[in-house]
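Quick one:
INPUT:
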């Protein structure tokens, strides 16, 4: 009876861990596995309570979750394999001298064969246990390969996330500054290349958030490297252009609509899983500053009426900025 319990417990742990590993690293539409998801959320909640909104700790929560996830996979695989080998007291034999194999020696053997080929001081019994040992080594190779590729993919996505923020904030810290730089005196066609790049980066970021939910927990202490802040600035620009320009012929509306659609998809993805819509709207773009630039804008009252249509959208953006532990971008 004890042997059956050990076999069942070991098999359950191994299958559960492998499922979570493959789910998290290979299933693009599946997000994180059940264990990985709980590790991430628990670590995030604990960090928020400890940090009391201090930005320093928020910077390490992403790497911390990644390390804890990898360690959890290792430990559960190791324990599961040890339990399975413990189902048969004679599954492993000592090659240096005769005697019973203790539990810690099984732990040693399964760990060695999981990560290396062993050193020969212990060996499996011929037949069934030789096959299981080969599978043990195969599981180790699977974990190392998928774990390494997962880490590389996540870090690459974090770099691209910050690159998006720098793309936007490099033009200005708020919508008025970006509009000033984009206005040629006659039109906004200087925005075209910028909008094409930004739309592509936002779409890619959205897909990466779906594939690697861990990406949401990587935060930057600097607002200019925060994708949430960068997208908020960009959307303010899009809102002014889409709802505030009196002469739509001064801008490429097709690119404006494409960029707005990319931001909307990003917000739908984030609010469905990670962020909550803010209770209040963020501040409106400063109409006085924009008017001083002599842009072809509608009157402020008309703009205020039009912007009510995107009230929910702007509250989602504010929710994303707050979730990233930053303030709404203002001059």
């Amino acid at each position: 009876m004890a042997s059956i319990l050990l076999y069942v417990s070991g098999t359950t742990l191994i299958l559960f861990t492998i499922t979570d590993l493959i789910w998290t690293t290979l299933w693009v539409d599946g997000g994180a596995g059940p264990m990985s998801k709980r590790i991430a959320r628990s670590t995030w909640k604990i960090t928020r309570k400890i940090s009391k909104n201090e930005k320093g700790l928020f910077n390490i929560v992403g790497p911390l979750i990644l390390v804890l996830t990898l360690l959890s996979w290792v430990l559960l695989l190791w324990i599961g394999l040890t339990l399975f080998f413990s189902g048969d007291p004679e599954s492993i034999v000592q090659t240096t001298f005769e005697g019973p194999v203790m539990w810690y020696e099984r732990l040693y053997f399964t760990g060695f064969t999981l990560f290396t080929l062993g050193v020969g001081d212990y060996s499996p019994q011929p037949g069934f246990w030789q096959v299981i040992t080969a599978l043990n080594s195969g599981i180790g190779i699977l974990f190392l390969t998928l774990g390494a590729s997962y880490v590389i993919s996540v870090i690459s996505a974090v770099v691209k996330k910050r690159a998006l923020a720098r793309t936007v904030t490099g033009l200005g810290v708020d919508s008025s500054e970006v509009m000033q730089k984009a206005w040629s005196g006659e039109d906004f066609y200087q925005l075209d290349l910028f909008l094409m790049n930004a739309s592509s980066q936002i779409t890619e970021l959205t897909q990466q958030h779906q594939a690697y939910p861990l990406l949401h927990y990587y935060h930057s202490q600097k607002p200019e490297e925060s994708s949430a802040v960068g997208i908020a600035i960009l959307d303010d620009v899009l809102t002014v252009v889409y709802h505030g320009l009196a002469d739509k012929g001064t801008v490429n509306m097709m690119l404006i609509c494409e960029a707005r659609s990319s931001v909307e998809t990003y917000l739908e993805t984030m609010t469905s899983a990670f962020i909550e819509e803010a209770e209040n709207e963020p501040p409106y773009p400063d109409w006085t500053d924009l008017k001083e630039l002599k842009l072809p804008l509608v009157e402020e009252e008309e703009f205020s009426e039009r912007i009510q249509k995107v009230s929910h959208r702007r509250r989602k953006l504010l929710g994303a900025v707050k979730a990233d532990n930053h303030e709404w971008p203002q001059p």
